[in-house]
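During the second year of the project, the team shifted from modelling isolated chains to modelling whole assemblies. The rationale, set out in the original proposal, was that interfaces cannot be judged from single-chain predictions alone. As a representative example for this report, we include one of the complexes processed in the last quarter. Its constituent sequences, exactly as entered into the pipeline, are reproduced here:
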Amino acid sequence: MATITRTRTQLAGRKKQTFGQHVNASSKHLFLLLFTLTWLLPMFASILTSFRTMDDITVNGFWSIPKEITLDKFSDAWTTARIRVYLLNSFIITIPSLLGMMFLSSLNAFALARFKFKGNLLIYFIYVGGTMLPFQILLLPVFRLTNKLDLYDTYGALILIHTAFQLGFCTFVLRNFMRTIPGEILDAARVDGCNEFRIYWQIMLPLSLPSLAALATLEFTWIFNDFLWALILLQSDSLRPVTAGLATLQGQYVTDWPLITAGALLATLPTILVFVFLQRFFIQGLTLGSGK
Amino acid sequence: MFKSKLVLVLILFLITVSAVSATHPAVVAQGPEYITYNSYNGDPEPRRVDEMVVGMWNDANPLTPVEHSIIAHEDFKQALRAYLTAEPAPDVLTWFAGNRARFFIDKGLIADLSDMWTEYGFDTALAPGFQALAKVEDKPYFLPTSYYWWAVYYRPSLFEKAGVTKVPETWDEFLGACDTLNAAGISPITIGTRYPWTAAAWFDYLNMRVNGPQFHIDLMLLKESYTDERVKKTFEVWNQLFEHDCFIDDPAAYAWQEAVDFMVQEEAAMYLMGGFITDSYPDELESDLDFFRFPIIDPAVPIGEDAPTDGYFIAANARNLEGGKDFLAYLGSQEIQQLALDELGRLPTRTDVDISGIAPATQKGIGLVQGADYVAQFYDRDTTPPMAEAGMEGFSKFWSDPSTIDQVLEDLEAERLRILEEGVEE
Amino acid sequence: MAAVAKVTGRSRRLSEPLDFTHAQFLSLILAVVILVAFIFMPWMWTEPKYNGARLMSDVLVQGSLKNFGTIQLVLIPLSSLLAGGVALWGLLGAERGRWSSLLVLASALLGLFYYFNLYFMREGEVAEYIRDNVGTGFKVTLVALIGLVLQILLSISPLNLGWQRVSRKLGVLKPPVSQKMIPYLFLAGPMLLYLVWVIGPTLYTFYLSLTDWDGVSTAHYVGFDNYRTLFKQNVFTESLYNNVRWLAVFITIPTTLGLALAMIFNTEMRGGRWYKVSFYSPLVLSWPVIALVWAWVYHPAKGLINSLLTEGGITDNPPGWLADRDLAIYCIIAAATWRQAGYVMVLYLAGLKNVDPTLLDAGLVDGANRWQLFRHVIFPLLSPVTTIVFIISVIDSLRSFDLVQVMTRGHQGTQVLANFMYIEAFNNYRMGYGASIAVILFTISIFFVGLYLWISLRNELEY
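Output from the structure prediction step:
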């Protein structure tokens, strides 16, 4: 791994010499800086708004220098607007789904990557195809199914659908990764008398850790950010995950934009943290998903 | 080897911990007999009263507590459909009277309240008009608990400032007032149509004032055609308001509560709104808020007013039907209606509520409703839900480009015929 | 093996290793049975319906904890989870067999303890309620718990050896499963879940689209009526157009932008990392958050853009953005683009890493300028990424729902297919009709999915 990185840096360095010398570096930087700042403007705007009061904005305008900076809106959003409860719910839903789908999809991936059998490619393609379909088409049947199974308005309903639906994507990524692991290691274990399940658990899984980590990071943000299923499969306010909770904030605090933006920032915090600390895995996950 | 020992210790630890916690007394075992109550009272004031009402119940009935979910008004309207078909559905729900409730009752989604109706004395306590709203084929399904009036709210101080000396009573006076206000640099009318039902109020009133309540209600029941010349006439009158530049810019960007701000900041003078406007209006400015009857356009037609009725029903799929009925009866009790009147100014449906101490504004509102020849609910409560959906989308199209009116009405007519064909309406 | 079997006497019993696989396998199955039975159907076929999943939801929620709490209801499945975990742990290492059997026993006894605790000792209404309404799940759980206790019998050496011999003769549960069956064993669990929650529902949607189901009464077969109505309704065409607009924007603007950004940041530069982070950070925001942030940006009176326009003196009458029927859909798409561009950039950056720099050098030596180099060397090399980006753009634009739902709810001429379906199905109770919209969505997307699969199939065959 280290060698690969080194070569890449070398190559990039060489490219810089041949490619970048014609460019007027400072003007390019200035342009990029301006462009990036404009790009992030909506985010800055909401962060700024959340520290102000609506009266201040109404009276003095959006671009005025804030009269006072207040954290009140955050505490309001956290307690009165129940972001606290919604965030907890999001975790209760996300973590089991994540564990479930990682385990199940690694089983799948192991079978699809390591065995030759009838229907291998077909099953693989069913998973890949299922991942790419607009999941909205499952809306009605899944709503009905959860009702029939008496799962409507429970965490379980969301956990199950997330686990099942994301299975396709995880299988796809892990299977492709597992195919790159040299077969000799596994064969050696087989000769030692390991059964297949142990090969999977004790050899394959540890070797797949990098891609599992990347997947977990990506899937965490995906499930955490889901909105549609929470909208359809839950009715109790006390069970809502943070995305659905946020959407209702707009209806309840219609004119209080500082509170809405404060709520949005709090709701984003977990995914932002994941992104900040696991950025490498996140980006890896995204590129893994795009195939080779 | 070390690792497996570690796992062993960990497992043993878990077992002991869970064993200890099991012998610990259960938190409070009160039984699954709680009552779920979903309401749409998302705005701060109604929310406060709603929570107060539930709090009072929970204090009095600790063994059958209410599990309360408040859902923002617009979300609730959308989510209700899913709630009702789900199993189990919430027990008690807030909703609106009229066809909007009828739609669900016809689908068999609402519980029959016959047995509790006499038990709790609703057969005598509710005024006769509300009995009719509650019942379908002589069986009660919906418990109406309050109603309110619609009127043109305005700020007298702004009228004075702009030089509008007389509260408009006729259409010409109204348009004249708009011109005077415009000249003074004040937007005459504010409105927020992000959720387009507020625009429907304008249609209701214009249509009732132009064509009379009878035609209006026939149109609501899909008995009249949307391509009728009379409907066209209504939109022509509506268009006069655009020609006189009566409304604020970009109403579709705002929810109705946001549009109130234009009045608060003295940028707009009038708002056609229901009595609940005071929930979102700053208390300190309420002394400078008054209302008048929607101006008369054709003096020859009877006067119709919108006075929507709100209430509660119980889902047929409810988990706790009996508990739900008890709670419903509590919500419809004299005590709670009195509270809603005192706290929120919602008019009671019971005859035994004491209205002697009410505010002058409330008195005026009652007078408005009583002075009407015909009382309608509201566009989206009087017509069927699919028609209301299409109608309000049509109003929004008309609003953004009044010249498209012929196309809009044709589309509405097509939708009406489609609904009739599907037989949603009996 | 046959030779060993012929030998008799005590000595053989000692030499033959004990095989705990059967006990562990049995424990694993029983534990899963308990979990499923207890979580999903403890009160099945009793009234009122009340299941463990809802119960867990209620118990976990702060507000309900005080209304409803009998901790055994959570501990019973937890102890069976423990049993299952221990069995799996044993299954994975041959030397742990005895320990794992003992631990499964311990967990099972613990479960039984909770069970009896719940039935005979616990006071209070929940316990009474349970006693009065014993459902299938409870019965199954009891049987399975007893089974878990009995598995220890298979670990006692004479019984274990006896069972080994019997099973060998009968050929049941042969520990080394036939080689052919192994992949299917791995696939069985996940496939079942996928079948029930994804494939089944997809097919069911097709069936629903041919009925007039309203979510309440029984469905009637109506043939292709729903589709006929669909093409007559203006909203449908409007939604379809909006999806097409979305797609048109998506395959042009974010793609070009993402590619350009990737080309810029591919070379090493000062602060390059921070630039990149800035562009892909919108990716971690959820759609509702993006919708709220942008709704605030578009706010006609106080929002970012309009206050800039008016206070900057550019215009006194700025557009209404979301309030403007002609602009609204593009405003929403712009918000989506904001997120998408970063995604495309990440994909292209990954693609560029695989471009062989010697090719570029060769190109430069040949005297090509930078544009020609990009046009004739880099871009063709990136074509696999471009294909993926194209397909992802199509799929994402068909999936668009959240932004529309939160920003305008499909008013203001911003309806898209997914939201239209949601409204028809859940607002107007035309589930069958909604399903037909879903089928249309499916048909459009399957074409592109098929394209993608075809491309990956080609790669697979080369592999």
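Residues 15-176 of chain C form one domain. The CA atoms of residues 33 and 176 of chain C lie 23 Å apart.
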